[in-house]
Write a structure and sequence with these properties.
With 158 residues, the protein is an alpha/beta fold. It has one domain (4-157): HAD superfamily/HAD-like (Rossmann fold, 3-Layer(aba) Sandwich), CATH 3.40.50. The protein is built from 5 helices and 5 strands, in the order βααβαβαββα.
Length: 158
């Protein structure tokens, strides 16, 4: 089995942001299209892959509901190779229908795929990572994945 470093990727607040939506509205006079991502954030993600070539993406965002095929297509529109996207985390709800914290879903994915993972990092604008908080590189939802956060991800994985 191939082994990889894994980037658990959130989308909202990471690859798009309040700042990119505001820019789009001012530049185009309309609301940002549903699947449009920030070109700065996506270029920073490309940079991470240049520096960490054995890295693969597991989508942990609510966007994972679109499915793996759609996620590969969306990210490939921003020059993120479809082969980099290998999976999505599971949706887990409690018996009363509440959504569990993202860290629990990520841990569930890790438990199911432990032989594949050599290292991992989580990039998200939220901090609901439970015991996985030390693996989080938290972005600011206003600005998304900026270069300094990309560098922090690289540093954690090297």
């Amino acid at each position: 089995m191939k082994q990889y470093k894994i980037l658990f990727l959130d989308i909202d607040g990471v690859l798009n942001s309040a700042q990119s939506a505001l820019y789009h509205r001012k530049a185009h006079g309309e609301r940002m299209p549903e699947f449009e991502l920030c070109p700065i954030a996506t270029s920073n993600l490309q940079y991470i892959f240049e520096q960490v070539p054995d890295l693969r993406i597991v989508v942990s965002s609510t966007w994972r509901g679109w499915g793996i095929k759609r996620m590969k297509s969306i990210l490939s529109d921003y020059k993120i190779r479809p082969g980099y996207v290998i999976d999505v985390t599971p949706w887990i709800e409690t018996k009363d229908g509440k959504h569990v914290k993202r860290g629990i879903e990520i841990q569930t994915w890790l438990d199911r795929n432990k032989d594949m993972v050599t290292d991992f990092v989580i990039v998200d604008d939220d901090s609901d990572m439970e015991h996985l908080l030390p693996y989080l590189v938290q972005t600011d939802g206003y600005e998304g994945l900026m270069w300094r956060k990309a560098q922090e991800i690289i540093d954690k994985l090297k």
